[in-house]
Amino acid sequence: MAVWVKKSECVGCETCLDVCPIGAISMSEGIAVIGDKCNSCGACVESCPHGAIKSDASDRKADISAFKDVWVVAETRQGNIRSCTSELMGCGRGLADALGQRLCAVLAGKEVSSHAGAMAENGADIVYLMEDKGLEEGLALPYVRAITDAVLEKRPAVVLFAATPFGRELAPRVSRRLGVGLTADCTGLDIDPETKNLLQTRPAWGGNLMATIISPDTRPQMSTVRPGVMKALPAEPGRKAEVVQLKVNIKPEDQRLNIQELKKELYKHVNLTEARVIVSGGHGVESKDGFGLLEELAGLLGAEVAGTRIAVEEGWLTPDRQVGQTGKSVCPELYIACGISGAIQHSAGMMGSKTIVAINTDPAAPIFAIADIAIVEDLFKIVPELITALKMKEGEN
Amino acid sequence: MDKLDIKVLIKQVPNTSEVKIDPHTGTLMREGMESIINPDDLHAIEAALQLRDTHGGKVTAISMGPPQAKDVLREALGMGVDECILLTDRAFAGADTLATSYTLGKCVLRLGRFDLVIAGHQAIDGDTAQIGPQVAEFLGIPQVIRAIRLEIRGDGLLAERTAEEGTEIVKSTLPALVTVTKEANDPRYLFVPLLMAAFEEDAPIRVWGGNDIGADEAGTGLKGSPTRVRRTFTPSHNKKIERLNGMPADMARTLVERLRERKVI
Amino acid sequence: MPLFEDTPAERAFRLALRKFIAKEFTPYREEWDRNRAVPREAWLKLGRQGYLCPYLPKEYGGSNLNFRYVVIMLQELTAGDAMCIGVTNHNDNSTRYIYHHGSEELKKRLLPKCVTGEAIACFAMTEPGAGSDAAAITTKAVRQGDHYILNGSKCFITNGMFADIMIVMCRVESPDVDPKKNYSLLCVEGESLKHIRRHQFEKMGRHGQDTAEIFFENCPVPVGNLLGKEGEGFKYIMEALGRERLELCIKAQVYADECLKEAIEYAKVREAFGKPIGKFEHIAFVLAEVATEVEIGNTFLHACVEEFIRGEDITKRVSMAKAWIPEMCNRVAYKAVQIFGGYGYMAEYRIARLYQDVRVTPIFGGTTEIMNLVIARQLGFKPIF
Known about the structure:
The complex is a heterotrimer of chains A (397), B (265) and C (385).
Chain A: E1 3-5, H1 15-19, E2 25-28, E3 31-34, H2 43-47, E4 53-55, E5 70-73, E6 76-77, E7 80-81, H3 83-99, E8 103-109, H4 116-121, E9 126-131, H5 140-154, E10 158-162, H6 165-178, E11 182-186, E12 188-191, E13 198-204, E14 209-214, E15 221-225, E16 242-245, E17 257-263, E18 277-281, H7 288-301, E19 304-307, H8 309-313, E20 334-338, H9 344-347, E21 355-360, E22 373-376, H10 379-391
Parallel strand pairs in A: 5-8, 5-10, 8-9, 9-16, 10-15, 11-15, 18-19, 18-20, 20-21, 21-22
Antiparallel strand pairs in A: 1-4, 2-3, 6-7, 12-13, 13-14
Chain B: E1 4-10, E2 12-14, E3 35-37, H1 39-55, E4 57-64, H2 70-79, E5 83-87, H3 97-110, E6 116-120, H4 131-139, E7 143-153, E8 156-163, E9 166-173, E10 176-180, H5 192-198, E11 205-208, E12 228-233, E13 242-244, H6 248-261
Parallel strand pairs in B: 1-4, 1-6, 4-5, 5-11, 6-10, 7-10
Antiparallel strand pairs in B: 2-3, 7-8, 8-9
Chain C: H1 8-24, H2 29-35, H3 40-49, H4 67-79, H5 87-101, H6 104-116, E1 121-124, E2 140-144, E3 147-158, E4 165-173, E5 183-189, E6 196-200, E7 211-222, E8 226-227, H7 233-269, E9 271-272, E10 275-276, H8 281-309, H9 315-340, H10 350-358, H11 368-378
Parallel strand pairs in C: 1-4, 2-4
Antiparallel strand pairs in C: 2-3, 3-7, 4-5, 5-8, 6-7, 9-10
Helix pairs in contact in C: 1-4, 4-7, 5-6, 7-8, 7-9, 7-10, 8-9, 9-10, 9-11
C-alpha cells in the first residue's frame, strides 16, 4: 500500500502539510513530497482540495445513503438512566438536526420501558425498546447481540455510546461484528457540513494532541463519548416520541460469562467520572495525613478526593482515585489541584474540567497554564484557610 | 484443567511521557523518542506466566508492528514467555483498531488451539482499549475486561474485574479473552540468561506477514481500516487565568467568592 | 555520557538492570546506610535475576557475558546509588579467582552458589601492616596433613562481614616454596569459617557497605582449597590488576558524572538574589570547568576500555587513569558541594553522600601515589620513596 502525489495536479497549496499527523510531507520546488515516515494513514488523501494525492487503498465505498438517523445507546445503572446518557441525547440531538434526521434512543435492559418517556423528553424522536431478562447490566454479550441485530435491521447513520467502562466494553464488539469503525472516548462530535460525515474528535498521545477521526465510507459511524463533556438539554415535559419494540434474540453463546458476586467493600464508593467537584492532590501533599486535609475540604464541598499517579504509588490514595493518562479521565464542574505540577500524564485526565483551581508553590508549574484560578502558595497554608472560609456563611466575610 | 495454551497480545509504543509536539506544525516529533513495551502489557505477560507456572502449558506472545517491534518480544522472552510471533508486513501499516483486531485474531486462529488470550487493558499511545474486545469478538469468545485477578476453576475462568464502584467476580467459559490493568500484579523483572538468549539467532521469534496468517489484504492495514485521521491539532488552552494575591486567608476568601460567582460550589 | 554505544542486547540489559535497581535498591540506600548493612535478600534478588557472576559459563549458571556487561553493571549500580552492595567485588574480583584458579571440584561446588547469591565472596589481601606495600603481608599458612593452618589478620575487606567465601592472600610455609616468594591464595569457606573472627569498620562514607577486619586463628583450610599453585598468588593478582583498576576508574567516572548532574540541576532551580544561581557567571564558569574535566575523564576512560577489550596491555594508561580520574572525581564533588552551599553539607542531600563516598576512590585499588610510581617506572625511572 502506498500514498503518492500526482505532480501534475499538485498546486502547492500546502494543505496536506498541516493535516499529516506525523509530519511526513514536505514541499520541494512547490510540490508536496511524501517522505519515508509516511505510514499510509491517508489523511492527506482526504484533505487535498485538488485530488492530487492518490492512494492504492481499496475503494470500500458502500451505499451509505441508506443509513439514516442518530442513535444513542442508553445506559442504565441499577435500573436508572445514567447522566451520561442524557448528555449523549443532548449531543445527539444537535447531530440529528445537522443531518436533518431523527434522534433515536436505544433502550435495552431487563425492564426499561418506564424510561421511554424520559428519553422523549430528553429529545428522542424514536425510542427503540428492547427488553429481555437476559439483558443484565454489566454483561456485554447479550447487549452486543441486541444492539447489533437492531442496527442491522434499522440501519442508523450514527451510533453513540457513553465511554463508560460498560460502553467501552460493548461498543468495540458491536463495531467488530458490524465491521465498521469506532472512535474511542470522543470529546467533540460534529457533522461535516459538506460531506455529512461525523467528525469525531478525541485526545491522542496522552492528550498532547487532538485528532479528528472520520469513517467516510462505512455506516453506521460509531463513537464512544467521554462522560461529562457533552451538555444535556433541559427536559421538555410532555414531549412525545414514537416507541418501537424490537425483538431480542439472545443466544446461549451470549451467556458464557456471568457475574458471580459484586464486591463493593473493596473501595469506598468512588465515582470520579460523575463527580461534580474533585479535590485532587499530588506530590506536594507529601503524605497520607496531607490527604486527610484534602478530605476535610472535599467533605465541605461534597467533592471526591483524587490524586496523581505519584500519590497512588506512594500509597496515599487507592488506585481507583488516580486521575490521568493511566488513571481516570474526569470532567467535573470544579477541579481543585493541590500540590500538582500538572505534567501531561495528569492533565490529560482532567483538562476538560470546567473550572480548574491550581494551588502550587512553584510559579512555573505547568498546571497554571491550564488553570482558571491560580494560587502560588503552599497548599498547607491555603487549604486550612479555605476550609475556614467555606465554613463561614455566604456574605459573612 | 490440564496444560494451558495462552496467547498474550503486546504492543510497542512510544514512551508518551517523553512526547514532544512541534509547536509550529502541531505534529508529533518522533525523533529520539524511546520505544517501550506498553505498560499494561507487562501485566498481561505476568498474568499469563503466573497461570502457566501454576497449571503448566505454554505462553505465546504476539505483537503487530514494524520490524523493530521485535524488541518488545525479546523483553517478553526475558520475562519467561515461551515463544513469540512478530506480525510485520507493509500491508499492515496504517491499521486502525478494526484492522488490527482482524490481524491479531487471524494470527491467534492460525496458531491453533488456545485456552486464553490475555492483553493489556489499553495502550498509552492510543488509549482506545478497543483491541481486547474486538479480538474477542473476532474469535467469538467471551471477554473479561479490566481484570485484576485470574484463576482457572474447573474447566472455566474465574476472574475479578474492576467495576465502577468496586470489583466483580465473574465466571466465564474457556476459551476467553482477558484484559488486565496494572492492579493485577507486579510484573517480574527480566531474567538475564533468558534475555540474552532472546538476542541469539535461534531465539523463538517467528516473523510472519499477511500470507503466513492467511489474512485477506482487504482486512488489514489501511485497506481494512474504516476510520481515517482527518486532522490533528494541539489542544488550545485559551483560558483567562486569574492569579490571586495576598495573604493566604485573603486568597482563600477571594477563591470562595469566585467559585460562588461561577456557581460551582 | 556513554563509554561505548550499546548493542541492542546491551541496551536491553542496561534498561532492565536500571529499572531493577531503581525499584529494588535505590529507595533503600538510606536505610541500609543507617543499618550499616545490606540485607541478604538484596543479594538473593540479584541472583534471581541473573546479575551475580553473569560472566560465568552456562554450566556454572552464568550467562557467559563479556567485559562490556561488567562496564554496564558498574555504571548502573553506581548511578543508581547501589554500590553499597559489594556485588562488583563479588562478581569481578573474588569469584573470578575461583573460576580461573580453583579445582573443578571447588568450582562445581562453590560457583553455582555465588550465582544464586546463597554465597557471598570477598577478597582479603590488605593487612594492618601491608597496604600499598602488599609484599609485606604476614598472614601465614602451615601445611598439616591435608589442611593448611591459617593465622593472621586482614583489614578493609569489602563484603568481609557477610562473606561465605574468602579468597585470602597468605604466605604458605612449605619446603617446596622459596620463603621470599611464597604468596598463595586460599579459598576459605564452609567449616573453616568457624575459626575466624570478624569486626566491622565504621567509615567516613559508604556506610551501607560492609567493610571488615578478619582474624584467622588456627583456621584449618583443606589443601583442595588452594587456588592454583603455591607461591603463585601474586602472579594471579597481577594478571587481574589492570582490569580491576579499570573498573575502579569506571566507578569514579560515574560518580563524577553524577556529581556534575546534581550540581547542574541544582544551579538551575536554586534561586538567590532573584534568579537561578546558574545565571551567575562564577557558578556557570565553575560548572563549565567541571563539565570539561568530566568529559576529558570520560574520553580517556573510553580509550582505556577499548584497548582493554582489544586485549592490549593497559598497565601504563590505566595507571594514569586511576591516578587522574578519582582525583578529578573528588575535585568535582568538592565543587558540586560548594554550589549547593549549606544544603550540600546536609546528609539528606545526595551530593553530601556522594562527596563522602568518592573520597575513597583515590585510595582503594592502589593509591594515586602508587599509580604515579607505576607510571614513573613505565617512563624508565625508579623513584626512591
